[in-house]
Amino acid sequence: QLQLVQSGGGLSQAGGSLTLSCELPERTHRQHRMGWFRQVSGNDRVYVASIALSGGVGHYADSVKDRVSISIDNAKRTVNLQMTSLKPEDTARYYCGITLGPLVSALNWKTYTYWGQGTQVTVSS
Q: How do beta strands 10-13 and 119-124 pair?
């Protein structure tokens, strides 16, 4: 069982920036892919971004691709999601997760095996 611990998030005004972090457990492997999803109460988790833990470029949902950056900090063993130009519609609970699947399956939250505890992002207008 992998425990993913999230940090960051919180409150921001529209136009502001926030960074979310997800700690990588020791047992993660380069074959794994980490994704970020967001969820509004009562709805399914929606894909935001993902990155292969072997490195490389991130992949983004069209709705955020110009405002979000996903990166791996190998020294801190974290995957970070930097969000800029925040909008009220970005308000949600954000989750990091790990999947063994390729990118095409990483878009679907149901393919993820492990999840972080979630962190709330609230953007005021």
A: parallel
**Per-residue pLDDT reduced to its tens digit, 6-34:** 999 999 999 999 999 999 888 777 788 99
Identify each DSSP E strand in the chain by its residue range.
Answer: 6-8, 10-13, 18-23, 33-39, 46-52, 59-60, 68-73, 78-83, 92-99, 114-115, 119-124
Give phi and psi for 29, each to the nearest 5: -125, 160
Alpha-carbon distance 102 to 73, whole Å?
A: 21
Q: Please, which contacts does 5-8 make with residues 24 or more away whose CB atoms are closer than 8 Å?
A: 5/116, 5/117, 6/94, 6/95, 6/96, 6/116, 6/117, 6/118, 6/119, 7/119, 8/119
Distance from C-alpha of 95 to C-alpha of 30, rounded to nearest angstrom: 20
pLDDT of residue 2: 76
Can you tell me the distance from the alpha carbon of 88 to that of 99, in angstroms, rounded to the nearest whole number? 29
Distance CA 55, CA 38 (A): 22
